[in-house]
Specification:
The complex is a heterodimer. By secondary structure, chain A is an alpha/beta fold. Helix content of chain A is 47%, strand content 12%. Chain A has 40 helices and 21 strands. Chain A starts with a helix and ends in an 11-residue tail after the last helix. Chain B is mainly alpha-helical. Chain B is built from 5 helices and no strands. In chain B, helix 1 runs parallel beside helix 5 and helix 4 crosses helix 5. The two termini of chain B are 27 Å apart. Classes of the chains: A alpha/beta, B mainly alpha. Chains A and B meet through strand 2, strand 3, helix 4 and strand 8 of A and helix 2, helix 3 and helix 4 of B.
């Protein structure tokens, strides 16, 4: 801070003149820059007044030549005693009531007490202030007030713009209350003691009825404009103190709280520097929203006062630029530097420091994105409107409302989490089970998160489900086979006539795998069979095993006899060589191949007659077919089967093939484009992901109780709840912002982004690991003083970080398993920067992977395809995805 | 000169009390007594007194002449007026004239402020 000279000057003088306890120094700098100094010290014994003055003057001259000395009072201890002097009082923030008090405070940082005041309580008071008029302050207040009321808050809007009242007109308040705040203040200021008051708090507000709002909006007008009003305003003093030491404002606030118990009080403040502005800002405000037209002169000079306001009262300050003539990127880029500079002046006082927070300055110290600026353009419909709020203009005001709302929520959560005193019990009760659809003990109906892709998956034409390993393909496969009821429920009726069968995959224990397929491949080649025929035979076998197909009897059935015998002779229990041989026979013998085709035709027809759909699910294809020729041929054959079934109009037989993304990309066969538009890529969008997080967290009854109290989201409706609602519920778990202040990163976004790789894939398993580990780490804070962590959330930022590391380690292990041939490359990354120049990556490749993928460009594009890194054009560097950086122990500096 | 100093001291203290809110007792706050405000006794020091009256002291800061008068009246002959109780030193004529001018001007100016503060 540039004001440090005051502190150091005071320290210097104290060091020199205060040697034992009764001695003291008091330094005061007047707002006009005069330095008044009182020193009581025995250092002056034996010195005349001029001598003392000379001593001090030369000291000041050498330290602060720019200041003119004012009163220099220099006494010895005994002189001070005879003057009846006492050391200065400890500064009391409550005594700052006027702009002048504030200005004196601002000029004397050395006398400010370092302890900031406690967090404000509900109801919070938010003051809308502007230095100049005509910037849309009142308009903004009316809109914000109604937005908050729509969201369910009880809002009281107070008109303190006494010299130019307008709030009740803006709200079109009808009927007007009998009195206004001026009448109320006037009576309380001048009523003789002992006389009964005639104006009660209930008579000075009216309600604005907002259709469909869940909250309520009350307005306290200034008063009805008449001659009496004018004489009262003229005679009122904002600093008037009544009943001992209560200010007008504190009495009003107490009474309105008793009467209405509002969630929030919004104050429309007087413009400029005057007593009512001071009351609104200095006495009343917990939070100030300052409206200004964006130009240089509007920001200068006032910055200091604002900072002082913060240091005195811990008021949080935000700026709204209004009306901004040009809200395009170009226009906003002019507003941004002004905002940055204002925030820089302001934020020193708001930087809360929690020990549990990581120092992320180097990472998050980026410029504020332009979208976060609070900007209101010149809106013609608003300028022309007769009353507010004007529908359709809410968007600009929503951001301001969010700001207020966010803080209100934080306070509410803090109160809930603190008063329950069960914080640790709740944390301990959290568990974040990984979804394992194969586990019969899990209640999948509670845990399975239906992603936005689910609808598309149900679509009949969808036959290919692509996705990275770990995105939940197998969970889907199991869901439909093992938890049919859950799947039907999630399908909302669309699955009622669907029968799902495992055509290949772990669901049936008896199945062929690598070795069998290897042999099949050889046999097919030798006997000029095709994989397509193999898959068709395998499908029939599976169907027969599950549903025991009734072959036609009598004459009609004769041609099926051979096939029937082969199938019936096979054991149901285990996959034996007979099975493999039978399948080879069925796919190479031309006669049998044709019979199978006919059989499948019959199956399709039967299904149609029963209004049934048959779903054949294929999973584990990556495991059972090692990379290479066999995989290529076999999978191509499978897709050819799908095409051929489509061509024969077997509309009741549907395929759902789960396949790893990169395998699909490397597959080539004729008419691959046949599958365009019939595939889905299984991805976890942010909202899916947050839903999963919430779904897991509310497995804990205790946590669910909390959610119900603060922002209820029913388990059944998680899939329908909006992102806002989900985030709000999750704020109880992990808070809304990473750090204090509204510039810090949103936690939900942080979690999602950190767990998302560079191809945009997010792994649900990583989320479980992160949360599990974060919970364990959080429990280590148990027993520590609550000042060390944020009480508005269960999991601290630091705990989430620890969780992220764990999730990253696990993820790295998985990718190593997935691509074992790249292990030496992965190991080589240890200690390397997460942001690599092309040459650097090339060097690593040369040493560790050039024998596996011979072309560097190919190698790099492979890495980006599997989501490990991405090319950043801006930096001309490769950036590794966060989810891998920790696990591979890479150096994260400078990556954001 | 001593008594002149005392009258100004009393005037300043009276102005401080005049700035007190309604309902507060016109006594200094001490460790054991809460009069409803937070001002402690400034003793005989003018600067201490002014610290208890922000508005007045800001005004004085803005007028160099007033500061000079205040200094002259608080320290006639270079010593604090309160110490003149036991002092036998007689001021010479020019000294006294200067003091008297300062005293009258200061008193007049302060009296005027009573009506505007």
């Amino acid at each position: 801070m540039q004001e440090n000279w005051q502190l150091s000057l005071k320290q210097h003088i104290t060091d020199q003149y205060v040697r034992n306890s009764p001695e003291w120094v008091d330094l005061n700098i007047s707002t006009s820059g005069l330095l008044n100094l009182t020193i009581v010290s025995d250092g002056f014994v034996g010195l005349s007044r001029p001598e003392r003055k000379k001593q001090i003057s030369s000291l000041l001259q050498s330290h602060v030549p720019h200041l003119s000395p004012g009163f220099l009072s220099l006494y010895t201890l005994s002189e001070a005693e005879s003057l009846n002097l006492s050391p200065p009082q400890v500064f009391n923030a409550a005594s700052v009531n006027t702009w002048q008090d504030l200005a004196i405070q601002a000029a004397n940082p050395q006398n400010q007490s370092p302890e900031p005041q406690h967090e404000p309580q509900i109801p919070r008071t938010v003051t809308f202030y502007s230095f100049k008029g005509g910037v849309g302050r009142t308009t903004a207040l009316t809109h914000v007030a109604s937005i908050l009321a729509m969201r369910g808050l009880k809002v009281v809007a107070v008109d303190l713009d006494l010299e130019a009242p307008g709030l009740s007109t803006a709200f079109n308040l009808k009927p007007q209350p009998k009195y206004g705040i001026v009448d109320y203040f006037y009576e309380r200021s001048y009523l003789p003691e002992g006389v009964e008051r005639s104006i009660s708090i209930a008579e000075i507000f009216g309600e604005v009825r907002i259709p469909n709002a869940t909250g309520r909006l009350f307005v306290v007008p200034a008063g009805s404009l008449n001659l009496d009003y004018i004489s009262k305003v003229d005679d009122l003093h904002a600093t008037t103190v009544i009943d001992g030491n209560n200010s007008l404002w504190s009495i009003f606030k107490r009474e309105i709280q008793e009467q209405l118990k509002p969630d929030i009080i919004l104050v429309d403040s007087r413009t400029g520097i005057n007593q009512w502005g001071a009351l609104s800002l200095i006495q009343a405000a917990d939070e100030a929203i300052i409206f200004m037209f964006p130009n240089e002169q509007n920001k200068q000079g006032i910055e200091l006062l604002l900072r002082s306001l913060q240091s005195v009262k811990n008021v949080s300050i935000n700026f709204v630029f209004s009306p901004v003539p040009d809200i395009t990127q170009v226009g906003l880029s002019k507003v941004q530097p002004i905002w940055e500079s204002l925030m820089k002046t302001i934020k020193t006082a708001t930087n809360e420091n929690y020990e549990a927070d990581e120092d992320e300055s180097e990472v998050d110290n980026h410029q504020t994105p332009i979208e976060e600026l609070l900007v209101i353009p010149y809106l013609v419909p608003i300028a022309l409107a007769d009353s507010y709020p004007v529908p359709g203009t809410q968007d600009y005001y929503t951001k301001i409302a969010n700001l207020i709302d966010e803080k209100t929520d934080e306070l509410k959560r803090s109160i809930v989490l603190n008063t329950t005193e069960q914080r640790w019990k709740i944390i301990a009760s959290l568990h974040f089970p990984e979804v394992n659809a194969a586990d019969p003990k899990q209640d999948l109906s509670l845990l399975f998160q239906r992603t936005t892709d689910f609808e598309k998956f149900l679509d009949e034409t969808t036959c290919l489900i692509r996705g990275r390993k770990g995105t939940g393909k197998t969970a889907m496969y199991w869901l439909f086979l093992k938890h049919e009821n859950v799947a039907k429920k999630l399908g909302h009726g669309r699955l009622d006539n669907t029968v799902s069968l495992s055509a290949h995959g772990r669901f049936q224990e008896s199945r062929p795998s690598r070795d069998e397929f290897q042999s099949v491949h050889q046999a097919l080649q030798q006997n000029s069979g095709s994989w397509e025929a193999f898959w068709r035979a395998y499908l029939l076998l599976r169907y027969h095993q599950e549903k025991s197909f009734n072959f036609p009897r009598g004459k009609k059935g004769e041609k099926f006899n051979d096939l029937k015998k082969i199938l019936n002779d096979l054991s149901q229990e285990k996959w034996e060589s007979e099975h493999t041989e039978a399948l080879v026979q069925l796919s190479t013998n031309y006669k049998l191949r044709l019979t199978i085709k006919d059989t499948i035709g019959i199956i399709n027809e039967e299904a149609r007659n029963n209004y049934q759909k048959l779903w054949f699910l294929y999973d584990d294809l990556d495991e059972d077919f090692p990379a290479g020729e066999v995989r290529q041929q076999a999978l191509a054959g499978l897709f050819q089967l799908v095409q051929s079934c489509d061509a024969s109009r077997l509309t009741e037989i549907r395929f759902k093939i789960f396949l790893r993304e990169d395998i699909w990309n490397r597959l080539s066969f004729d008419n691959k484009s046949h599958f365009t538009g019939r595939d889905i890529i299984l991805q976890w969008t942010k909202i899916d992901f947050l839903r999963l997080a919430l779904r897991q967290a509310i497995q804990s009854e205790n946590f669910k109780d909390l959610v119900d109290r603060v922002s209820p989201v029913a388990v059944e409706s998680i899939d329908r709840a909006s992102e806002d609602e989900i985030e709000k519920a999750l704020e109880i778990l992990w808070g809304s912002r990473r750090r204090g202040g509204n510039r810090a990163k949103n936690v939900s976004r942080w979690v999602y982004e950190r767990l998302t790789d560079s191809s945009g894939t997010t792994f649900p398993r990583s989320l479980s690991i992160l949360l599990k580990e974060a919970k364990e780490h959080e429990l280590t804070y148990k027993g520590q003083s609550s000042s060390k962590f944020r009480t508005d959330r269960l999991l601290q930022g630091r705990s989430l970080e620890v969780g992220l590391k764990k999730a990253s380690e696990k993820r790295c292990e998985e990718i190593k398993e997935e691509y074992p041939n790249l292990i030496s490359f992965f190991d080589y990354l240890n200690g390397k920067s997460a942001l690599l120049e092309k040459g650097q990556l090339q060097a690593i490749w040369k040493n560790s992977a050039s024998n596996i993928i011979e072309n560097f460009e190919e190698f790099a594009s492979f890495l980006s395809e599997i989501g490990i890194l991405e090319w950043r054009e801006k930096d001309k560097r490769y950036k590794f995805a966060d989810i891998y950086v920790y696990g591979f122990k890479m150096d994260r500096r400078g990556t954001v | 000169m001593h008594f002149g100093g005392v009258t100004i001291e009393c005037l300043l203290k009276a102005m401080i009390f005049a700035s007190l809110p309604r309902g507060a007792t016109q006594e200094w706050m001490t460790d054991s007594y809460d009069p409803g405000h937070t001002f402690t006794n400034p003793g005989h020091s003018y600067t201490e007194a002014l610290k208890r009256h922000n508005r007045l002291s800001s005004k004085i800061d803005k007028f160099r002449e007033v500061r000079k008068w205040l200094e002259e009246v608080e320290y006639p002959n270079g010593q604090h007026f309160i110490h003149m109780r036991y002092s036998g030193i007689e001021p010479d004529d020019p000294n006294y004239k200067r003091w008297l001018h300062a005293y009258k001007s200061l008193n007049g100016w302060l009296q005027k402020q009573i009506t505007t503060l």
